[in-house]
């Protein structure tokens, strides 16, 4: 047994430090147990003697101890099973507290056990995404081409979710129950800084591995990743612009997505001005609409997205519930529960597979709604497609009895409004054959957010902005009013 005292020689409310320990010969498992009496946000990553990432942990309600075992069936969730070799292993810690911790004061204690007789035996997940033989962080048996529905159709999902393995209140099983209740077809697992390496069991809902990289200056999702951002980078990289750009620029698989989360939400807004815009695939326009501060954040995101679209970027707008609560719980100031799938993001796929969901995201074949799907077309064209006709009629429809209205948005300007669940707009770009785009925003009768479509495009434009900071300069006056 080894006992690590987690401390540092300076007074601070942040700790970023790597501790090493030696694994003896002929070991089948290594287990880790964190104990602390302090209120803190604690993350660790465990690397073996070859510097391969083997375990991930964020302090929440994660079952402890966390065990890395040579047998897949006996290893904990969010770890990599396989050979446990003797040598120097490393635990990389990142810890944040509200108040400063005095130098040399213990923040936490980590007990490390080898081949331990645990009080509660670890029962491995039934649906592994890595082979359990090669001890490297690769989801090499996750099948992105596995078909969950063979029909060409619109499919509803949630791109931003959390569980007890970080700061969510629901287990993965409870998340799936909620997803079924919300009639989701797919679900992206995006716990803070943790990439799932398995799932509790096979499900009828398509589960896509992801992660929310949670840094002091902004959060972003990596969707459909086959590895961890911390397999090559380290937790301390989240503290700097340079480090975050290294994480963003890393290759996570051909079918992966970089998505900026809640970019204008209070203390969680995206403040990384050096972020290269050409690396951003999607932006979370609407984050949990039952959280009161998201009302303004959604409007700011719509405004900033319009600026990007006008500059020639065809970045896809998505939604995410950012689910943390149980289905019967509400945030302060809301009488509506915070639910998985609110808002829902609808994608158009030939067949429902993880690979096809990503393809639809990259093409912009996407609409977002708190209720029924926003149906938006020009003839046979849907969101994300390019229209060759400079004169025509765009139509929008929502199959609902709720009181809603449509706002027609052309090149960032609201050009028309129409009450009801059906609307159309006649456009004419014949006198200006430059780049244009058309989409709709949908609102409840009181003006609050209901949904939106991604644009249909006319022509192309070479973007001029390069970095997120340039976008902030365009919108900061209105955001800071």
Automatic annotation (TrEMBL):
Record domain Polymerase/histidinol phosphatase N-terminal: where: 157-217
Q: Which GO terms describe its molecular function?
A: 5'-3' DNA exonuclease activity; 5'-3' RNA exonuclease activity
Annotated Gene3D superfamilies = Metal-dependent hydrolases
Write down the InterPro entries for this protein, in alphabetical order. PHP_domain, Pol/His_phosphatase_N, Pol/histidinol_Pase-like
User: What's the name of the protein?
Assistant: Polymerase/histidinol phosphatase N-terminal domain-containing protein
């Amino acid at each position: 047994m080894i006992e690590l005292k987690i401390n540092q020689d300076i007074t601070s409310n942040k700790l970023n430090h790597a501790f090493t320990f030696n694994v003896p010969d002929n070991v089948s498992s290594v287990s880790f147990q964190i104990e602390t009496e302090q209120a803190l946000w604690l993350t660790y990553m465990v690397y073996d003697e070859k510097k391969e990432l083997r375990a991930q942990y964020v302090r929440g309600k994660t079952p402890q101890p966390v065990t890395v075992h040579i047998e897949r069936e006996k290893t904990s969730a969010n770890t990599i099973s396989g050979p446990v070799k003797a040598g120097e292993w490393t635990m990389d810690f990142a810890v944040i507290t509200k108040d400063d911790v005095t130098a040399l004061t213990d923040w936490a204690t980590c007990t490390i056990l080898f081949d331990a007789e645990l009080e509660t035996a670890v029962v491995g997940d039934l649906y592994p995404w890595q082979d359990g033989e090669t001890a490297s962080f690769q989801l090499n048996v996750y099948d992105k081409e596995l078909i969950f529905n063979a029909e060409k159709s619109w499919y509803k999902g949630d791109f931003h979710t959390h569980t007890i393995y970080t700061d969510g209140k629901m287990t993965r099983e409870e998340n799936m129950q909620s997803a079924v209740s919300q009639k989701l077809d797919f679900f992206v697992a995006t716990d803070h800084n943790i990439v799932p390496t398995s799932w509790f069991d096979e499900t009828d809902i398509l589960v896509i591995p992801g992660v929310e990289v949670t840094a002091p200056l902004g959060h972003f999702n990596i969707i459909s990743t086959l590895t961890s951002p911390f397999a090559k980078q380290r937790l301390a990289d989240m503290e700097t612009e340079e480090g975050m750009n290294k994480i963003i620029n890393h290759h996570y698989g051909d079918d992966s997505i970089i998505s900026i989360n809640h970019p204008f939400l209070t203390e969680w807004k995206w403040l990384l001005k050096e972020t290269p815009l050409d690396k951003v695939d999607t932006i979370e326009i609407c984050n949990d609409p039952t959280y009161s501060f998201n009302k303004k954040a959604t409007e700011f995101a719509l405004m900033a997205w319009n600026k990007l679209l006008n500059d020639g970027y065809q970045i896809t707008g998505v939604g995410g519930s950012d689910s943390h609560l149980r289905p019967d719980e509400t945030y302060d100031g809301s009488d509506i529960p915070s639910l998985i799938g609110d808002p829902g993001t609808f994608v158009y796929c030939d067949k429902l597979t993880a690979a096809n969901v990503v393809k639809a995201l990259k093409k912009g074949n996407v609409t977002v709604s708190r209720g029924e799907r926003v149906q938006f077309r020009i003839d046979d064209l849907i969101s994300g497609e390019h229209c060759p006709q400079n004169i025509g009629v765009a139509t929008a429809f929502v199959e609902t009895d709720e009181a809603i209205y449509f706002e027609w948005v052309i090149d960032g300007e609201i050009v028309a409004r129409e009450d009801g669940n059906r609307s159309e707009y006649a456009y004419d770009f014949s006198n200006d054959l430059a780049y244009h785009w058309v989409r709709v925003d949908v609102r409840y009768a009181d003006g609050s957010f209901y949904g939106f479509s991604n644009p249909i495009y006319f022509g192309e434009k070479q973007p001029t902005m390069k970095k997120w900071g340039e976008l902030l300069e365009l919108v900061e006056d209105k955001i800071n009013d």
